[in-house]
Structure formats: C-alpha cells, structure tokens
Amino acid sequence: SSSGVSLLQQARPSLPASPASSEAPELDAANKYETVVPHWFYCKVVDSRERWIPFSTQDSERLEEAHTSGRDKEDLIVPTSGGRYDVHLKKRQRVAVYWEEEVSEVRRCTWFYKGDKDNKYIPYSETFSEELEEAYMISVTLDEWKKKLESPSREIIILHNPKLMVHYHPVATSDDWGSTPMEQGRPRTVKRGVENIAAEIPNGEPLQIDHLVFVVHGIGPACDIRFRSIVQCVNDFRNVSLNMLQAHFKKAQEQQQIGRVEFLPVNWHSSLHSTGVDVDLERITLPSINRLRHFINDTILDVFFYNSSTYCQTIVDTVASEMNRLYQLFLQRNPDFKGGVSIAGHSLGSLILFDLLTNQKAAPEDEEHSREGSRTTSSNRGVEQVKEILKTLELSEYCDVFEKEKMDRQALFLCTEKDLKEMGIPLGPRMKILHYISSKREILSHETNPNLPLSQVSANYPQLIYKPTIFFAFGSPIGMFLTVRGVKRINPNYKLPTCKGFFNIFHPFDPVAYRIEPMIVPDAEFEPMLLPHHKGRKRMHLELKEGLTRMSVDLKNNLLGSLRVAWQSFTRAPLPAVEAAAADTEAEGNPSETKPEDTPEPVKEEASHINVGMLNGGHRIDYVLQEKPIESFNEYLFALQGHLCYWESEDTVLLVLKEIYQTQGITLDQPLPGSQ
After folding, report:
1. How do the residues of the chain divide into helix, strand and coil, expressed in percent and rounded to 5?
2. Is residue 347 among the annotated active site residues?
3. Catalytic pick among 347, 350, 476, 552
4. Which residues, at least 6 apart from 670, have a Cβ–Cβ distance to it below 8 Å?
5. CA-to-CA distance for 84 and 669, rounded, in angstroms?
6. What is the pTM of this model?
7. Between β-strands 49-54 and 147-150, what pairing exists: parallel, antiparallel or unpaired?
8. How far apart are the first and last CA of the chain?
C-alpha cells in the first residue's frame, strides 16, 4: 500500500476512540474538522492539452445529489449544460447529446495542485483525494502537521499546515536500487476545496426553454477566423444570448415570463466531407497565400458546391433530415416544450435554408380557409390532371396506382425517386416522371408567378416536420444566387410557404453577403436598416463621423473642415443606413445622416417606411451591422473577419432575441434607438 495509507493507519490508534470518549469535548475549536465540499469537473482537450473545466453550480449540485443517492452503482445518467450533454455517472463520462464529440472524463473534485504549464489548478484523482482528505482530517483533529504522503506517481506531498500544503515534483535520482522519490524539485501549491482555487464557476442556464433555433453553417468545417467548428461558434452565440437576456430582458426574467432560447448546430459538412471532396481540393490548391486560399475554399467555393447537382442533393437531404432528427430528439428530451422553432443560416447555410423554405408545402388549412367545401372536388380534379400527365408520357397503365395512392398534381410534384420506387413504378417510367417533374417545375413557377424565387432545379427538396417562426440569414449570398438563376424581381406579395419572418443580416464589409430588398423594390434606392448597437447607441466613431459632418455645416471652419476630410479619408463615407425610429422620434431636428450636400432629408424619412413586400410580413428585411472603429480604417483587411463575425456579435444576437420574443408578446426592457 502507498505511504499515504500506512500513514493513516499509524495515526488511527491515536484518534479518539468514540464520540463518547472523554477527550472529544476538549478538542480546541480551531481543531474542528469540516468535510470538504466537492465540485464536479470535466476534462476537455484543447490544442492537445488537457483542461479541467468546472460544471455550473446547478449541474455540480445535481451530480453530487445523484452520487450521494448511492444509485451510481447502476449507470445513472444526469443531463447537464442545459440538456446538451449527459453525464454517465458510473463511467464518469460526459457525452454530447445532439452532435458528435469526443467523450470527456468527469471527476468529483476536492483536492487540486497547480499545473506546470499555465498555472491552472488540476484535480487529483478521486481515490487519492480521499487519501489526502483523510490525512488532512487526522492532522486537523490531532493538530499534528508536517504529514508526508506519496502520490500514485510516487511524488511527495507534505501538509505543512492548513494554509500551506505542497506537492514536490521529483528530480529523478537514480541509484543501484532504481529511482527513489525525493522532496527536492520544484514545489507546487496544493489546495483543498474548489473555493480556494479561484475557478470561474458559471451559475448555470435557466431551465425553461422558450424557443428553439437551428443554426446551419456554410461549407468547410471552420466557421470563423479562428477555424473553430460550428459547435464552438454556436456555443459562443448561445453564451452571448444568455448575457443579452440578463442585460435587456431583466424585467421579463424577474417576472419569470421567460427562460432562454436554445441554439443547436446543424452539421452537414461531415456527410459532404465523406465524399472526399476536401482532399481533392487540398491537392489542387496552390501553396501561396495559404490562409486566403483556405478561406476561399471554405467560403467562396460554397457557390460552386451548391451549384453542382452532385453535391446539392446530398446537402439538402442532409440538412433537412438532420434538422428533423434534432427536432424529434429535442422534443423527446423536453416533452413539456411548447415554444416555436426558428432557423438561422450562415453563408451557404442560409441559401440552403432559403431553397428548402421556398419548397415547403404549406399545410392545406393555411391555403384553404375559404375553400373548405371545395376540397374534395379539387382533389378529384387533381387526380384527373395526374391521369392527363401520365397519358402524355404514355404511362396510362399506371393510372390506377396513382389513383389508389390519392395522388393529385401537387402531390406528384413533391414526389421523389424513392416515393415512386415504393409505389412499385419501374425504373424507365420513373425516370420519365422525374424528368417531367423537374422540367415542369421551372416552367410552372414562371407561369403561376413569374417573380417566384427559383430554387435549384436539379434537387428534390425534403419537407421539414415543423413550421419555422423566423428565418435569419447571416452573411448570406441569397440575393446573388437568385440573380444568377435569372430571378430579376421578387413579387412583393411572395412569402415563404411555411415561415412568416425573414431577416437578412450582414456586416458592411462581408464579401459574401448580398441584399434582398432591392429585388423586391427595384425602383427605389434606400439603405438597409442599421442594426442598433446593443448598448443602446451608435458606436462612438459613427457618432463622431456624423458629429463632424454636422458641425462642419454650421462652422465653415477650415480647421474643422480639414479634420473632417482627414477623418473621412481614413474611413469610409458615413454609412447612411436608415434608422427607422430616428426619423420618427428625434425631436432635436437632426439633419440627414447623409452628407449635407447630398439628398435632402424627406427622402430618408420615406425610406424608413418603405414597403418591402410580404417576405418578412411587411417589415424590413435587410439589416447591416455597425462596423467597429478599427474596421473602418481598412475595409479589405477586415473583409475576411466581416464574413465570420456574427457568432460573437451582441448586436446580431440581440436582434434575434428581440424578434423571437416579440412573437410571444415580450419586449426589451428599453427599446433600442433605431430599432423597428
């Protein structure tokens, strides 16, 4: 046995025999032993280094409760981190629920020592911590210190006194008998109890989930400038949202009207990745300007991938089935969930979602409020139309099969090859029918509504099993894709069949982002909405720019004029983005935000109330983030960052929360200036 245990055995006889013994009451108050409070940690490997991270207070308490219930002999599972990770108590493992991730080791921690590399405290193993605790208890009770223990790796730990405990890192000395543990070497601090190691322990998340948001990434496994995965980026987004809820929805939180919004990543890259396309790309990518080329492979190339019929079908199938799978799993784990679901896409992710949404089939009750009685007749007419189609394709012998399946024209246009196969249609006729569907789909969309956004003709779009409340697009190329597909204009009356809200959010320097509103209102020129700063005002440099612009009108002063010229030559021209509320509420009579010699004020006022059609229920669609002062100095330098900045952008998160909670009738504590 280790010397720690033998030390305890020697010390035991001198312990009071029983609480009833005469010595017990005489123990000094200073010698009173109090048991250590354990805290649970999990181990995360970051850049091939192990990091021990504390669970939140509420998670640790739940784990401790499960542990002390004595039921961890069976494999007890405790949900943690808002239900996104399960802890298997017996195996001491933390397992991700919704996505693939390395399993983490879990530990019930009471004793820690300071690590070598970064001065972070590392917990001792549970068994050795118990030895340390027992030695400590004996030392405190008997007030006998300078106790020596030997760790499992044969290193010496000395308990000098309650405040000073040291772990000696051995300098290996070798003799004929092999190495012996030595006390020399660099001493490391040893601490008892998590409260003594200054660990940042989060409180935990509100248990109630009000709304669920699925987040779909662009191509490539990296989602931001630090090459982190979608899971890490969505974690950031979620953390920012928890801070924003505390800062801007305090009233609603205090009245327990709201809990939180859950954000879950949808990872489709791995299924595309399995086709080996990344390796092929790597092989043909030139070695020069390495970072830029990899950035292009991960963003701009989105365009080519999605335009290829080979990858397009794989991508839409994976995204839809993953979103449906996650939704069902979420409901299974949160049976009381009554909230809505929204979806958000970054870069190509937003285009995939847009195409999926334009191809969703609106539920009959949405379309036919007034046509209750005519349903049966219209479905009969639909069946007749299908017979006509089969006749023109010389496939009349299959009419009975389609009639038996109650297949009308609309249902036929939603058929996939798999459906036709299940109906028993042979390969030849199947190909004819699919070719007819894809060719007619394009013509149909032009005939019935020439302004309907065209989706990828070559793909069959799966159906989602829920209706999204709002669709948020971050840094999105939707506008460009529609234009390239030949859509010149989106009909102002067009709306997504199953989704009422649509916001297109972008950074002014994002090279992949395009606007949507000019496609609905091509004749008027107007700026996107300026996203309010989360602190409730414009960023200082934008205010300074405008301030200088305004002052230079009043004071025709050379010095000020040169200051303004210098400022504007450093930065871009002032961003004359529309601030809706500013036009209505600013009583100080602010002049126009554009340069004074430019357009007069009434035009701006008009722009804030411009009718941008029904795509977002009559509300504005395009929202531009305010650039940071440093970004103004070099637009090109920050173009890459502009495309990847959304995950940690408080302004973006706040807009998402504001719009989601507005659907539940809950508003911000203080309306932000410039918000709709």
Report:
1. 40, 15, 45
2. yes
3. 347
4. 248, 536
5. 29
6. 0.72
7. unpaired
8. 72
